[in-house]
TrEMBL record:
Domain of life: Eukaryota
PANTHER family (alphabetical): DUF295 DOMAIN-CONTAINING PROTEIN-RELATED, OS07G0183000 PROTEIN-RELATED
UniProt protein name: KIB1-4 beta-propeller domain-containing protein
Residue intervals of the KIB1-4 beta-propeller domain: 72-329
C-alpha cells in the first residue's frame, strides 16, 4: 500500500464533487451500520515508533465519505500491496519477502490503537505458474473467530493457494485442472462448506471443500444447467459472449455486461441466476427479483446483505466496483453511477467493498 495513490485521491475528489450539495464528509460514529468501500489510507511515522493515519471510506447508503481518524496502521502493510478483501478483512502482500498479511485495521469497528494482524508465509509460485498478479482472495471464516479458518488466494492463471492462519501456517498450492479458470474470482459458500471458482460465462463451477490438503484430493467439477432465460437471449452462446464476467454469492450468480467506448469501459447490465433444487436436479434460474437483498461485487469476495438491516441501501440491486462505481437496479435494469457522468474512469481495481 503506497502512502500516496493518485488514482484513489482522484476518486475521492470526484465523489466529493458529486456530493457537494450535501454534507459529503463525516467522521465515524456508531450510526454507520452497512457495507462500505475502502478508498484511501494515509500514514505517518510517529517519533516513538509505529504509524498513525486516516482511512477514507465511502458509505453507499448515505453516499457520503467517511473518515476514520487516529488509526494505528501496522508497519507490515505501510508499503505493502493490496490483494483483496474478505469478510471485513483486508489482504496485503509485502513486496520484499512476499509474506501475506491479513488485518482488520480498515474496519470502522476494529480497535483503533491495536488492529489485529495475521502474517502468513511467503506466497510462492508453482512451476509454470505465477503469484505476482492476484485475481482475488476468500476466507471460510474470520481468523480471529475460527481456529480452522482457511484463506484462499486465486492467482492469475492456474494457481490456487490455501493456508490455515491459526494452524499449520503453510501454503497448499494447487494447479486448477483444465484451462477454464485463469481469471475466475474465488468465493466461499458457508452453506456448502466449499470454495467455488466459476468458469467464463458461468457455465461451469470448480469447487474445493476444506479437505484440500489431503493426499490425492480432487476438486469437484460442476456443469451448470440454466433455465428461464430472458427472451432477449436466445442461446447460451450469445449469453457467454455478452456476459464474460461472473461472480457467485452462495446461491446466485451475477453476470455483468460491458460496453466498449473507445479505450474505456462501463458496466451496462447484470443478470442474476438463482440456484434451485428440483426433482430433475439443480438448475440456475434467471431472476430479476432478489427481494430484500442487494449484492456487492468488486475485486474482493462478493457478498449479499438484507437491505432491511441496513437503511439507505437499495433493495433488489447490485452495488458494483470494477468498470465504474455504481448501483444496478434489477427491476428497472438501469445502472446509476456514484461518479460524475462527465468523467471517464477505467477499471478501478484498488478498492474493495467490505461487509
Amino acid at each position: 500500500m503506497l502512502r500516496e495513490d493518485d488514482l484513489l485521491l482522484f476518486l475521492i475528489v470526484l465523489l466529493t464533487w458529486k456530493m457537494h450539495k450535501r454534507r459529503s464528509v463525516r467522521s465515524f460514529s456508531s450510526s454507520m451500520t452497512g457495507p462500505y468501500l475502502s478508498l484511501c489510507v494515509s500514514a505517518k511515522s510517529l517519533p516513538e515508533g509505529g504509524n498513525i493515519g486516516e482511512v477514507v471510506l465511502f458509505d453507499p447508503a448515505k453516499t457520503e465519505l467517511l473518515v476514520l481518524t487516529e488509526k494505528a496502521i501496522p508497519d507490515e502493510i505501510v508499503l505493502a500491496k493490496g490483494l483483496g478483501a474478505s469478510k471485513g478483512w483486508a489482504f496485503f502482500c509485502d513486496p520484499q519477502d512476499r509474506c501475506v498479511h491479513i488485518t482488520d485495521f480498515m474496519n470502522p469497528w476494529a480497535c483503533k490503537s491495536n488492529p489485529k494482524l495475521f502474517t502468513l508465509p511467503p506466497l510462492t509460485s508453482l512451476p509454470s505458474c505465477q503469484t505476482n498478479a492476484v485475481c482475488n482472495v476468500a476466507m471460510s471464516a474470520c481468523p480471529d473467530d475460527d481456529k480452522d479458518s482457511v484463506v484462499a488466494i486465486k492467482s492469475l492463471g492456474d494457481q490456487l493457494s490455501f493456508c490455515r492462519p491459526r494452524r499449520d501456517l503453510r501454503w497448499t498450492k494447487i494447479t486448477t485442472p483444465l484451462d477454464y479458470f485463469p481469471t475466475s474470482n474465488l468465493m466461499h459458500s458457508k452453506r456448502d462448506g466449499r470454495f467455488y471458482l466459476p468458469g467464463p460465462g458461468g457455465h461451469h463451477l470448480l469447487s474445493y471443500d476444506l479437505n484440500f490438503d489431503k493426499q490425492g484430493y480432487q476438486p469437484e467439477f460442476h456443469e451448470l444447467q440454466f433455465r428461464n432465460f430472458p427472451k432477449s437471449f436466445e442461446s447460451e452462446l450469445e449469453l457467454s459472449e455478452l456476459f464474460p464476467c461472473s461472480a457467485r454469492t452462495n446461491t446466485s450468480y451475477a453476470n455483468s455486461r460491458l460496453a466498449s467506448k473507445e479505450i474505456s469501459y462501463e458496466t451496462q447490465q447484470f443478470m442474476v441466476f438463482k440456484e434451485e433444487e428440483t426433482t430433475e436436479g439443480r438448475f440456475m434460474c434467471y431472476t430479476d427479483d432478489i427481494g430484500d437483498t442487494c449484492i456487492f461485487i468488486s475485486k474482493g469476495e462478493a457478498f449479499c446483505v438484507q437491505v432491511s438491516c441496513f437503511p439507505g441501501l437499495e433493495p433488489n440491486s447490485i452495488y458494483f466496483l470494477g468498470f465504474g462505481l455504481g448501483v444496478y437496479d434489477l427491476t428497472s435494469k438501469t445502472a446509476s453511477s456514484f461518479l460524475d457522468p462527465s468523467v471517464t474512469l477505467n477499471q478501478l481495481m484498488v478498492s474493495y467493498w467490505f461487509i
